[in-house]
Automatic annotation (TrEMBL), chain A:
InterPro entries: Beta-grasp_dom_sf (IPR012675), MOCS2A (IPR044672), MOCS2A_euk (IPR028887), Mopterin_synth/thiamin_S_b (IPR016155), ThiS/MoaD-like (IPR003749). The keyword Transferase does not apply. Heterotetramer; composed of 2 small (MOCS2A) and 2 large (MOCS2B) subunits. Pathway: Cofactor biosynthesis; molybdopterin biosynthesis. This is Molybdopterin synthase sulfur carrier subunit. C-terminal thiocarboxylation occurs in 2 steps, it is first acyl-adenylated (-COAMP) via the hesA/moeB/thiF part of the MOCS3 homolog, then thiocarboxylated (-COSH) via the rhodanese domain of the MOCS3 homolog. Pfam families: ThiS (PF02597).
From TrEMBL, chain B:
This is Molybdopterin synthase catalytic subunit. Belongs to the MoaE family. MOCS2B subfamily. Its EC number is 2.8.1.12. GO terms for cellular component: molybdopterin synthase complex. Catalytic subunit of the molybdopterin synthase complex, a complex that catalyzes the conversion of precursor Z into molybdopterin. Acts by mediating the incorporation of 2 sulfur atoms from thiocarboxylated MOCS2A into precursor Z to generate a dithiolene group. Pfam families: MoaE. It is an enzyme of class 2 (transferase).
Length: 102, 184
C-alpha cells in the first residue's frame, strides 16, 4: 500500500480547487472532459487571487491572454481583480471568462 | 434546476411582490413560466423580454446553441439585479427564467416578465434587467455552425470582464468596460 496521500498539501503550499467554465475549461481540460476544476498549489505565505492567476498562467501559457480578461469569483461573489485577495482553503474559487448569457 | 421562488417584500400599498428565478435545462413556457407568475389584478402592464436563438451569425448558419452556467452564482447575480429593480422601480412581480444546455434554433433562452401598475416602470425595468443580465451573470453560450466550422464560445460585448485599461468599477465591485459597439 502506498503511504502517499496525493491530497495532502505539499510543505508550505495550499491546494486550491479552482472551478473552470466555458472557454477556459475547454482550453485547460479539453472539449469533452467531464471535469470542471483544477487543483492549483499556492504558497502558504501567498495564497492569493493574484498568485492564483500567476500560477494558472505559468501552467497554461496558451491561455495567458484569456486569463487577463477573466473575472475571479470567490464564494459566489466577483472580486475586484486589482485587489490581491487572500484565499482560504475552503473558499470556492472560480475563473469567470467574459460572459455571454441571455 | 435551480430556482428562487419568494415573496420579496410588500410594496407601499401592502401588496406582496413575488420574485421567481429559474436556471434550468427545461424549455421556457412563456405563459406558465412567466406570464402566470407575474399577472396581478393590481397590474396595468406586464412587460416581457423573450430572447430566442438566431439561425445565423455573420453569414454563417447556426445549428444550435449550448449554454453553460455557474448556476449557484448565476441565480445569485440575477437575484441581485432583481433586488435592484424592486428598490428602483414601482413594479409588482418579477419572473426571470434562463435555459441552459442545448437550445435549438428559434427557441427561447431567456424570459423576463415584470408586472407593474403603470407601463413605464415595467418597460424600463425589463430593459435594465436584460442589459445587466447579459453583462454580469455567469452564463456562457457556444455557437455550433451547420458548415462544420469550429464552434465558438461567444462573449457579450457588454460583458463583465477584467481589463487593466479604460475600466471603471461600479459599486457592486464589478469591472465593466463598455466598448460601445455591437457584435450581434
Amino acid at each position: 500500500m502506498s503511504t502517499t496521500d496525493t491530497t495532502t498539501d505539499k510543505p508550505n503550499t495550499i491546494e486550491i480547487k479552482c472551478l473552470l467554465f466555458a472557454k477556459v475549461k475547454e482550453m485547460i481540460l479539453g472539449e469533452h472532459s467531464k471535469d470542471d476544476s483544477v487543483i492549483v498549489n499556492l504558497p502558504a505565505n501567498k495564497c492569493t487571487t493574484h498568485q492564483l492567476i500567476s500560477e494558472l498562467k505559468l501552467k497554461y501559457p496558451n491561455i495567458s491572454n484569456l486569463l487577463d480578461v477573466c473575472m475571479v469569483a470567490v464564494n459566489l461573489e466577483y472580486i475586484d481583480r486589482s485587489n490581491d485577495l487572500e484565499i482560504k482553503k475552503r473558499d470556492e474559487v472560480a475563473i469567470i471568462p467574459p460572459v455571454s448569457g441571455g | 434546476m435551480s430556482t428562487v421562488d419568494i415573496i420579496f417584500d410588500k410594496n407601499k400599498d401592502g401588496i406582496d411582490r413575488g420574485l421567481y428565478i429559474e436556471v434550468s435545462e427545461e424549455p421556457i413556457d412563456f405563459k406558465v413560466g412567466g406570464y402566470n407568475r407575474v399577472e396581478d389584478d393590481n397590474a396595468g402592464a406586464i412587460s416581457t423580454f423573450l430572447g430566442t436563438t438566431r439561425n445565423n451569425f455573420k453569414g454563417k448558419n447556426v445549428e444550435k446553441l449550448e449554454y453553460e452556467a455557474y448556476t449557484p452564482m448565476a441565480v445569485k447575480e440575477i437575484a441581485k439585479i432583481c433586488s435592484h429593480l424592486f428598490t428602483t422601480y414601482n413594479i409588482l412581480h418579477i419572473a426571470v427564467l434562463h435555459r441552459i444546455g442545448t437550445v435549438p434554433i428559434g427557441e427561447a433562452s431567456i424570459l423576463i416578465a415584470i408586472s407593474s401598475a403603470h407601463r413605464h416602470d415595467s418597460l424600463t425595468a425589463v430593459q435594465y434587467a436584460i442589459d445587466t443580465i447579459k453583462a454580469t451573470v455567469p452564463i456562457w453560450k457556444k455557437e455550433y455552425y451547420t458548415d462544420g466550422t469550429m464552434s465558438v464560445w461567444k462573449d457579450n460585448c457588454e460583458s463583465c470582464h477584467y481589463t487593466t485599461t479604460k475600466s471603471t468599477l461600479n459599486n457592486d465591485g464589478h469591472d465593466h468596460q463598455h466598448s460601445g459597439h455591437n457584435k450581434h
